[in-house]
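ingest -> validate -> predict -> emit
validate: passed (alphabet ok, no gaps, 348 aa)
predict: started
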Amino acid sequence: MTAEPRGPKRAPTIHDVARRAGVSRMTVSRVINGEKGVRPTTQRRVEAAIRELDYAPNLAARSLAGAATLRIGLLYRIPNPAYLTEFLLGALEGCSRINAQLIVQRHSLSTGETAAAEALIGARLDGVILPPPLGDAHLLVGCLRGAGVKVVATGSTRPAPSLATIGIDDFGAAREMTRHLVRLGHRRIGLITGRPNHASSGLRQQGYCAALEEAGIALDERMIATGNFTYRSGLEAAEHLLSLDEVPTAIFASNDDMAAATIAAAHRCSLDVPADLSVCGFDDTPLATTIWPELTTIRQPVAAMSDEAVTMLAEMIRAPGNEQDAVPHRMLDFDLIRRQSDAPPRRR
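emit:
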């Protein structure tokens, strides 16, 4: 069961068309551009999805495709392979659509921000996309922009009006998931947070706290365990929560990896999910539907986010001189996707 979309309404994207038609985003792009090699039945399915969604191709992106090739960098430091895969797929598709070259570099914890920026500047890039948490790396961002490199930060970032951003409402999404658990009847709801240096971690915790306050449920700090977005950290955090004298009846993990680990920890404790413990995640990565029970989670459009970040960056780079100071900020929708890992609490 899929809940109604939450957050600001947006126009349907190529990703929505691909999902509706059951094809790849590249296939949709080929149909839109009138390219050969698409089976008639597939083309009809894509055209039907376009009509049903009232999809209008991004004309700005298509006009950008006729311009000179851009060199766009993507610097990442993401511990979640599933998230990174989705992010890269979206960025690659965006670059192919606007005639841009994508240069991918990894930023390790041992690499200083200045050194990372100098490497990108030395590669003579036109612009750089920064997945979380690098949008909050102010020294890195400052060095890039000081060298005239356009930057778009994706995901949640700490407020910086001068930095172009694209993401979702992490606070609102976490509040909605916690509200969902409250509506099911849960009162002891645990939270596994993400990395402290990720803005999204703080925003998701704030959303959780806001929903509890709305419901008149006193905040119990013992119900909040720290993770770092990895499976191992989620396992340790879940084991801690499940060892409390009063165990939670539901646990909301700040990403799907930690939610999957929570289900494993529950099974170790001979708890049934969701009869004894409801477990919910965040992101809706492929992992959410490859474990059992399948995860109730927040879907954030990771591939669409990176795809649109490419277009945003290209528009900034190619903007006329009198428009170059305009800084775009875009918010995408999130969805609460309900599957089999949550239920009303069992009476004891």
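The chain has a mean pLDDT of 87.
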